[in-house]
Specification:
Helices cover 35% and strands 19% of the residues. With 267 residues, it is α/β, with parallel strands linked by helices. The structure holds S-adenosylmethionine. S-adenosylmethionine binds next to strand 1 and strand 3.
Length: 267
Amino acid sequence: MSNKVHLGHTARKRFGQNFLTDHNVINRIVGAISPDNDHVMVEIGPGLAALTEPVANAIDKLTVVELDKDLVARLQEHPTLKDKLDIHQGDALQFDFSQLVEEGRQMKVFGNLPYNISTPLMFHLFEFAEQIENMHFMLQKEVVLRLSASPGTKAYGRLTVMAQYHCQVMPVLEVPPGSFTPPPKVDSAVVRLVPYKVKPWPCKDVDQLRHLTTTAFNMRRKTLRNNLKHMISDEEFAQLGIDATLRPEQITVEQYVAMANFVVDKQ
Ligand code: SAM
């Protein structure tokens, strides 16, 4: 059976379209999202409404951001959804999520994300972290492992440090390719990201933290000293109490923040 016959829409590869069709998985994700009217509920990439419909059924209003104009047109004409949805056609990467926040109501953001934009999209959403209660995303399983990794493991990297700086990260559910139409080539997983209300390790300049982690993880096989030598000297590493002979994946989030704050103070 072709995708078109099955879905009534031809899945577009360039928009990362793999539609959820497994009702058991859909129910479990909606349970994890736990939709309510006390938050501004926001879905990224509603597609054919696999998650949109059960979430919208549970609440008064749902905001969606969808890039594909054909899918937007379908949602606008949807008999039961059209009155409940606040539809924004456009690129979620460029979308100003702060415009959705209302007095006293933070956002809950969720989506089965197009895998080609998932990392930049999470970085974009971290900029609105203070206005977000939680986020639930379907991602490549490998990305969920990176988000939730511990120091000293292969999966630990720049994405781990930046995600765990902003959020508590909890893997929720693994999802096999057969739960989607068409099936993706990789395993997927759902993750819950809860932005800290009070950051455990506050950073004076997040741009500096981003720059420092990018530089530190540039060459994973090299030592911290080697990767950061133009930013932090041996004496300064000693002052910070950080062993500069370690590899970047052996350094904790707290230590990355301490280094970033040190560089900010020095400037
Ligand atoms: N939520 C649906 C589901 O679970 O079946 C669709 C998921 S599909 C993996 C990703 C959806 O994101 C598609 O509807 C696609 O058109 C949309 N999309 C792709 N790139 C986007 C972007 N940059 N901004 C907003 N939506 C995007």
